[in-house]
Fold this sequence. Notes:
11 strands; single chain; 13 helices; five-stranded mixed sheet; globular; alpha/beta
Amino acid sequence: MRVAAIDLGTNTTRLLVAEVNAERVEEISRRTTITRLGEGVDARRRLLPLPIARVRNALSDYRRQLEALGAERMLAVATSAVRDAENGEAFLGEIEWSYGFTTRLLTGEEEADLTVRGVGEGAADALVVDIGGGSTELIAAGTRISTELGSVRLTERFLASDPPTEDELDALAAAARSVLAEEVPETLSPRRAIGVAGTITSLAALDLGLVEYDRDRVHGHRLGDAAVRAQLERLAALPLAERRLVPGLEPERAPVIVAGTVILREVMHHFGLAAVEASERDILDGIALEAAALPEPVEGDAPPGAYTCC
Length: 310
């Protein structure tokens, strides 16, 4: 079955069109647009008009593409930013009305479960680390932990200077250590880790010295502790305008990559991990599997607001 999976994340809006056969996902097209839906949510607890417009513009484009590719089922899931926002459910209702997607608002635990399902068999004996814009999920040995350690959230809370000061970075790191110490069971002691989502895959690309992003080379790359620290030192020293120009780094990810890297460093230190393996398979693949199980859509007119841009 050909499906469309949409991830309405705190920092990115992503699309996967894929053929699904049992638990196998074969990619047809995958796209990422940095829309920063969670901008301002940590302070205001509301999705703001400009980020909503950015998401709707991306979805209008995605809807046209998935139709052209013949997707039979369409599932859009929302995570941390929409969970935290007072108008999150209303936003999802508008998305369903406008574009005809089936929508789901995931809990942190559901988000973790879909991530593990997307990663596949390789996650069975590993800690899966999913650093998002609004939250970080840690999954291992049947344990599902969803924390508020998100790259957008912590950038807004701690990194006011450009480039960030040592005091700001230390405060962010201390906050991350505190959350991990409080929320991670002492009995959780994984020997290996798999990292998913944009922070980790971007750092893998930088460690590989890629000028243009290459998913095949990033997937499976082992990102060592020393490499994470080296990239953090490099990126944190650059003003944002210069960070946007770093080869291999998506310019729109530059504003939050420093906070994401601090989170990863602290997660690795907490568990004593020498390296984390980057994975290009993630929650989007899990969403595709869920989409294949949706009931057959009812034929009829397009929803009243379909394809609206903003």
